[in-house]
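FORM 7B: Structural annotation worksheet

SECTION A. Query
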Amino acid sequence: MTIRYDDALPILVDLLKNSMPTEFFTNNLIYRDADGVLSVVLRDEIPEELISNFENNASHLGDYISSPVFLTPDDLFDTDLQDKTNDDWELVSTQNEQFYIRYVEKRIVGSDWVRGILTDTIPAVPPIIVFASLKGGVGRSTALSVAGFEFANRGKKVLAIDLDLEAPGIGSILLNHDSLPEFGALDYYVENGRSEISQDFIDNLCQSSYKCESGGEIYVLPASGKRCHDHPENVLGKISRSYLETNESGTVKTFLDKTRDMISAVCSNLSPDVIFIDARAGLNETTAATIQGLGADILFFGIDTPQTWEGYKYFLSHLARYKNRTTLENDWRYKIKMIHAKANPGEESEKAYRDNSFDLFASYLYDELAGNENAEGLPDAFSFDLDDYSAPHYAWPIYMSEAFYEYDPQSSEKIPKNIIEKSYGDFIERLYDRVFSNDA
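SECTION B. Predicted structure
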């Protein structure tokens, strides 16, 4: 039988479980390298006879298993593997059961996906709201724009950041070419670690898009600034380099690290009340930075189609590996909220979306209650009823409206306020309350 990527880990775990001491998985680690090859990192003393027998019987495991199978952190030239606090917990399904193992995965690209969930917010930075989706065309950027104007009209200073580097939206929605700043997020990622990031450079990343009498204002940090528009031949080259890690005096910085640094630098002078981030659709390397790395509230947009639920299944099943690496008081799962985009008005439509969303969250992110002493309502259980309004799966609706099909806030023809209220009123109120409910 040919061993495929999906087969290798369950087979290895099953073999170890049947041939090693009962407590083997307590301290020892399974390591997957950048090529996908699995090894067992030993932290305990294991009898040589057991290791030798296992190696002799492991020849059928294929090209996804290292030879030898058992290694030490020194063998892998990675002393960090000695520290158990760096381990992830991976739920593995073997032929007979499911259980968690200690697991570390290395990647050449997308390494931010396996860093876990960073629940710490960025120091001296206001609340961050990430507008995310698995597919484009769900009205994510439009919702961000509408919310930005409504918040500004209530006297809030909003910073809108476009991190959809390959399909920019917010910059062109909220700024025309003449008002673009010189640089954009793409320039920051390319220059960071390679040339000087001066205060003048930071000051030229953002531009005001809208200011009202209430004192509210929208600032925009576009994906692409004037430099990209004036030198379009360089954009693809910049994109390919924007995801690369840099090494500054021995410190490796990933896309996530650079994103946190950029936000911190911009906020040091701008002092916004809230940050809206337009994340790239899909499961790109950049998505990990916005979803897992900013301590942000995450709004997951979708429409009620099989493609939506299939896509979110991939994403939530990945996040599930981190659900037991948190405390209830600081549980990152509370920061997720589903958004029912382009919804048809009516309870039947909203209930259908809620049912599908609940099934997905119950399968992956909610704690199982069956056989669990920490049943619903007790401190250590993260679980919700289907109709619990506060639950992450209980979606906020944004209602379908033809008025927003060709939405252009820079146009002289403004959408009437009653139309905005009809489609976005509930969404705006709930989001505003989520961000500012603790304000005095």
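SECTION C. Observations
The two ends are 65 Å apart (CA to CA). The chain is about 35% helix and 20% strand.

SECTION D. Sign-off
Analyst initials: ____
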